[in-house]
Amino acid sequence: METRGVSRDRTTFNSVMNACGRAGQTDHTVALYKEMKKKGFMPDVFTFTALATACARGVGLRVSDVVAVEEEMAQREVQPNVHTYTAFIQAYRAVGEWRTAIRVQPSPPLP
To answer: How far apart are CA 90 and CA 96, in angstroms?
Structure first.
């Protein structure tokens, strides 16, 4: 990105992570996430939505991968939005945890 005059900030990291996650490139999404944190950018709801989306569309993931993303989001006190909940539901479904998927819901419920 820098070679094209685009500086990396949280928004550009999130945008690229989102594109990679939607393409099922989970490893690349996670690598970008690690680079983002290394450069000192704090993850936000869009970051975790991109990670959950990558979990939903990736191949060979385990339930522990999805749980790890959800736990880090909670640890950082990032409040999910409707897109985040949807991504986590899809991620749990993708790893065969449909019972967990149906329990994912906002607390308190979204309006």
So the answer is: 10
> Which pTM value belongs to this model?
0.84
Domain edges within the chain: 2-103
In order of 6, 7, 39, 91, 98, the CA distances from 60 in angstroms are 33, 33, 28, 12, 17
Residue among 60, 58, 84 at smallest CA distance from 72: 84
Which pair of tokens denotes residue 21? 């996650």
Per-residue tokens: 99? 């019972």
Q: Could you report the average pLDDT of every consecutive run of 10 residues in the chain (111 residues)?
A: 74 94 89 94 95 86 84 92 90 84 64 55
